Amino acid sequence: MHAGQLRIVFLIILGVVIAAVVAWAQDSDDFLLFDNPVDHDLYAASGEVSIQADVNGDVVAAGQSVTVNGKVAGDVVAAAREVEISSEVGDDVRAAGQHIRVNSPVTGHIVAAGQTVTISKPVGDWAWLAGSTVNVLDSVGGELKIHAQEIHINGQIIGNAELNGEKLSLGPKAIVLGDLTWRSQNDAEIDPEARIDGAFIKESLPDYMDDLESGGGLFFTLRIIVAVAVLFLLFGRPMRATADRIAAEPGFSLVIGFVVLIVAPVLALLLFVTGIGTWLGFALLGAYLVVLLLGMLTGLFSLSDLALRRFQSSPAAWQALIAIVATVVAVGLLSYVPVLGSLVVVAVWLLGVGALCRGSWLLLQKYRNDSLQAS
């Protein structure tokens, strides 16, 4: 396996392991504020986690947002839509999320994956980063390896730099003391004041990076795994109820999924063309796209959950997460099989869409009945 693939596999495992924190966290309120010093490891999961005091140990946190403004003696492991670290970290940082910002020095290394990753203070050791846009604005004490669409570097890299992506820009403060390898179909943008002491090596993207650009590959698998895992951890009970619904009436779920897949876009088109309700058409189309995405995720989870519960009637959260990883990878590999693979993917998709829509309808009916009884 290519070294770059190994790093991405590591990031996949990291994302799922971090997500599992939600299941075992010591605290799980909607908002958690730590404003008194903590003299041990800190585990927290919430909608919002805010650490404003020093922690004499590791921090492991997950939620919608994780903010670290107190000094951490050990590691910081975080998974959230927004991760912001603004105080010194005595060891390593491992983070996964949509937006990751490290605004304070890190003594050890950094492994981070997100839509945007910004490192604006020194990193004592090496850094492995992945995302859509990655910014390295200060020094990295070891090697730097990045997989991203856009890469911006404006700091000193003590070791070698291996960079894969579509766009690379080196700012005037960029210094690479070792070799810089740039794998891309495009040329790098290098400021005249930037410095590369070693060799500058330009290579074409390897085959697996071509897969990533076309929507497949390991990054796509990473996103699907994390999305399914987060849905399970946040909505475990309704997700398992959906899986039970599919197990009880798979044919009915398939029919509903097929009807929704065909009828919804046609209805939206009629609303647009006739002018009866243009805004309603936009709303229906938006809801349709959301249902398609959630339907695939729901179908994958249901498949993993039903398979797992054949062997374990009451599986633990970590077992469910392992089953999710195995199912997503297995379906992804099966999708490459001609005809059969496509049929399996479509079936999983339709089952998920059908069960999701039926569950939503039943929930609306329950809400309506409760409202009538209350009145």
Can you give a write-up of this model?
By secondary structure, the protein is an alpha/beta fold. The protein has two domains: 3-203, no CATH class; 213-374, no CATH class. It contains nine helices and 16 strands. Strands 1, 2, 3, 4, 5, 6, 7, 8, 10, 11, 13, 14 and 16 form a 13-stranded parallel β-sheet that branches. Strands 9-12-15 form a three-stranded parallel β-sheet, with no helix packed on it. It is globular. Mean pLDDT is 80; it is low at 1-29 and 208-216.
Characterize the main sheet: 13 strands, parallel
Number of strands: 16
Described by the principal axes of the CA atoms, the overall outline is globular
Oligomerization state? single chain
Kindly provide the radius of gyration, computed on alpha-carbon positions and rounded to a whole number of angstroms.
23 Å
How many structural domains are formed by the residues? 2
Share of residues in strands = 25-35%
Average pLDDT value? Answer: 80
Classify the helix fraction into a percent range.
40-55%
> Strand pairing plus helix content: what structural class?
alpha/beta
Number of helices: 9
Low-confidence stretches: 1-29, 208-216
The string of secondary-structure elements, in order, is HHEEEEEEEEEEEEEEEEHHHHHHH
Brief synopsis:
The protein has 375 residues and is α/β, with parallel strands linked by helices. Helix content is 45%, strand content 26%.
